[in-house]
Amino acid sequence: MKIILVGASGDVGQAAFAELSKRHEVVRVGRTTGDVRADISDPCAIEAMYEKVGAFDALVSAAGHVHFAPLAEQTDASLKMGFESKVMGQVNLVLEGMKRLADKGSFTLTSGVLDRDPVVAGTGAALANGALAGFVKGAAIEMPPGVRINVVSPGLLDVSERRYGALFPGHERVSSERVGRAFAKCVEGAINGQVVIVE
User: Fold this and answer.
1) Which residues of 97-134 are buried (b: 16+ CB within 10 A; e: fewer)?
2) What are the tens digits of pLDDT across the range 124-161?
3) What is the largest CA-CA distance in the chain?
């Protein structure tokens, strides 16, 4: 398969690449690095990315960021930033990709643990993750025949401990290998409309 991997340079993206590149051609996409550059917060950049890549069999997104801050410090702007980046960026990858995806192709998005196991200052992430879960479940029943969509929802990766561990007290760390296999399950398997939890 030819797989587009958006957010390939991040910890989750690297886990997906390590697993999927064993068996498939993977086109890495990032804002500042990768085979193709694209900022998914810009719908025009998404369209240009698809034009450059051409025909493809699967889209995997591990992109988007949110603002971590105590709820009392969150604002309309800070919450919208995370929603537009992590949610609408990935949603727009699907909306534009539906026009171009190969028959029987798939979309796999990425959310995270905080909508089901919250932490202090993580409300923005919880909002985005919950929205992605709802989008995938709703979109699955309207996909073209044979096309699937799922979302991988990992806990904090072991390789992310140094940067983000303090935000996740008491949370189990998950291995990059297990996260990579979750993406393989979505891309190479037959599930549809699922939130694939990796804890």
Assistant:
1) bbebbeeebbbbbbbbbbbbeebebbbbbbbbbebbbe
2) 999 999 999 999 999 999 999 999 999 999 999 999 99
3) 47
